[in-house]
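Late entry, evening session. Most of the bench is empty. Finally got around to the prediction I had been postponing all week. Sequence below, unchanged from the version circulated by S.P.
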Amino acid sequence: MAAPSTKLCILLPTGIVDVPLAVLDGRTPLEVAHTPGFDRLATEGRVGLVRQVPDGLRTASDTALLSVLGYDVRRTPIARGALEAAGIGVPLAAGDVAFRMNFVSTYEGRVVDPQAGRIGNVEARLLVEALQQGLGGPTPDAPWERVTFHAGTSYRNLLVLRGATDPRIATVPPHEVRGQLVEEHLPYGPDAGALQHLVTAAAELLVAHDVNRVRIDLGENPADAIWPWGGGTRAPMEPFSLRADRTLSVIAGVPIMKGLGRVVGARVPDVSGATGSYDTDYAQKLRATLDALATHDIVLLHLGAANEACHDADARKKVGVLEDLDRHIVDPLLAALAARGDTRVLLTTDHMTSVLEGMGSTSHVPFALWGPGVLARSAKGFTEAEAAKGDLVVDEGHTLLAFAGR
């Protein structure tokens, strides 16, 4: 890592990388968007490619985010559900299995919206409370003792199987099956039967709830089904401060990133207005980042709006999000850090997320490194194509953090 006097700001906007799109005349959103701040990182620093998810592992945010923090995911057990639980403050006992639980919208037996119209927090909490009252508690003839439901943010919630005996259950993320039949992608495996029944019972409860009746009357997508995925138990992790000999703060709005920060022992402040979506208060997140840099060696700023645009399959919305991120985060951040003179910026993302449904992920994503001691290598801007032109390729994503700090 770098000398203790050199700080590092990891700028992590998920969902920014894409493929050339017909709707954008064969260009990517990064190539279309006017982003002088992103481009400044590239022209004044170095750009390259990094592989955050090792070959053979499923491309997923939980895996890639761990890699960004310098952990080799092949040697570090991780479960998305456990991270989500940590992110919303739900303790897990030994043997508890936590699942990320999306509210989704269905029509004629198919998943039509894996985010349930980006349902509001208040509505989602009412639905979670109804699920807990109607379906929470002991589950007869199941390989666990009882079920609990927990509210997170918007469509992102939590289902916990308490006292489970390591059930053999596999799941698929809902955003991978948009437009497909629900019954063909339910939890599966030798012990999945009781969880399938729970999903069915939840749908019967939700479709009759007043929240969804009102949403339908207003022309909004109802949260008429639950989708548990990413299940797993808690696992001890080596604290970041011991691993890197640096202090870490994580600025985030989504539970998975907040949870990962807490699991590795980082400081994770609650930032007012940080939602992880389009309505995030960028000014508050920028202020929290600069405040954290005053007291910590490394600060990770997570931004999720571009990822939301991908899930909405809206390329032009993604372009607008990139320009908002540039205007409200990247440009003022660089101005503040240039005045300080003691902080590098590592701009990267977790994995390629396209607005094209069913699109497979590329193996590598762009990154840029900017700040004290970084020699520029004449990139024209921060785009997928510019990053691919150079000879700087990091195949082991978990080593990028150490490279950025050298």
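Two things to note before I forget:
The longest strand covers residues 97-107.
The longest helix spans residues 315-340.
Will write this up properly tomorrow.
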